[in-house]
Design a protein that fits this description.
- The complex is a heterodimer.
- In chain A, 0% of the residues lie in helices and 49% in strands.
- By secondary structure, chain A is mainly beta.
- Chain A is globular and about 35 Å long.
- By secondary structure, chain B is mainly β.
- In chain B, strands 2, 4, 5, 9, 10 and 11 form a six-stranded mixed β-sheet that branches. A five-stranded antiparallel β-sheet of chain B has the order 1-3-8-7-6, with no helix packed on it.
- The chains are: A mainly beta, B mainly beta.
- At the A-B interface, strand 4, strand 5 and strand 10 of A face strand 4, strand 5, strand 9 and strand 10 of B.
């Protein structure tokens, strides 16, 4: 069964440092997403990406965040200057289609980011 | 609005009994409603989903019902087993990009 893969599985970083979280969505999917989950809390939407551009972002996704699809397979989330409150599990997801066509909505296994 | 509310927050059931978790949503344009099971430290795993043109869907011991008029949908687990113990999240699709808005999760504990 196709999978969304994420690397690394765990990242520890110093406050103020930049981190890049990597994702490889399912190959025929067109919509890509980043979500995060602070320990013990619900999953929160960060950003959606379609046709090589951001299609929607939440209030959490401020100027310190950016996303990129540098080639035909990778989808990255960059946090420019990490803060303690950025510590969370970050999930990448992808789906085949947009409104009314969310087939194959699949989450990756996540990257646990710890900011110290 | 795009609130997704989930009740109850914790549910304990005896093995073999049924468990029901309810979710309400506020966006009348939502048309895709997945349920995820999340075990500690792992990613959410899709267990069942339903689209707005269907009122009920069943997969073995799991079923989901949708009431679009009332804007609520429920997860039903029958003949619960200890391995059903996990946090269950409901979600509803929002907007043209199908981003998901999640409920706060429900801790289900199946007592052997």
């Amino acid at each position: 069964e196709p999978e969304v893969t994420q690397t690394p599985s765990h990242q520890v970083t110093q406050m103020g440092q930049e981190v890049i979280l990597r994702c490889v969505p399912i190959s025929n999917h067109l919509y890509f997403y980043w979500y995060r989950q602070i320990l013990g809390q619900k999953v929160e939407f960060l950003v959606s990406f379609y046709n090589n551009e951001i299609s929607e972002k939440s209030e959490i996704f401020d100027d310190q965040f950016s996303v990129e699809r540098p080639d035909g397979s990778n989808f990255t989330l960059k946090i420019r200057s990490t803060k303690l409150e950025d510590s969370a599990m970050y999930f990448c997801a992808s789906s085949e289609g947009g409104r009314g066509n969310a087939y194959g909505y699949t989450f990756g296994s996540g990257t646990r980011l710890t900011v110290v | 609005g795009e609130n997704v509310e989930q009740h109850p927050s914790t549910l304990s059931v005896q093995e073999g009994d049924s468990a029901v978790i309810k979710c309400t949503y506020s966006d009348s344009a939502s048309n895709y409603f997945p349920w995820y099971k999340q075990e500690l430290g792992k990613r959410p795993q899709l267990i069942i989903d339903i689209r707005s043109n269907v009122g009920e869907k069943k997969d073995q011991r799991i079923a989901v019902t949708l009431n679009k008029t009332a804007k609520h949908f429920s997860l039903h687990i029958t003949e619960t087993q200890p391995e059903d113990s996990a946090v269950y999240f409901c979600a509803a699709s929002i907007g043209g990009n199908n981003r998901l808005a999640f409920g706060k999760g429900n801790q289900v504990v199946v007592i052997p």
